[in-house]
Design brief:
alpha+beta; 3-stranded antiparallel beta sheet; about 140 residues; 5 helices; Dna Ligase, domain 1
Length: about 140
Amino acid sequence: MSEGASTLLAAAGLRATPQRTAIVGELVREPNDVTAQELHDRLRARGGSAPGLATVYRTLTRLAEAGVVDALTHHAGELCYRVCGDDHHHHFVCSRCHRVVEIGDCRIDAWLDDLAGRHGFDVTGHRVELEGVCAGCR
């Protein structure tokens, strides 16, 4: 686990301190997404020397800025973080259980180019986060 955490930290240009390694290690174990507060609570529940909440926020912010993790906005008032694949993708998020599914088939480039052209913009990127209810929650 620490090898994967070290790789993600290095990709973000961060030194692999024990606190950061613990944060990323816990994030990697999460199949969906997690807020900084939830991640901090999990680390504290494991016992030992858990990183402070500010360290968790700073680490997650740096990882997201570096594009190593995705920051999702479906949780009102707080970002959720997730380790995702490297390829361009979007997300389906279940509004009940918060299950996250990566969508790799993006077909909106032509629509965006047309729309941007009509408004005098050059599109440099896009992110789509679709909310709904997964089959397990229906």
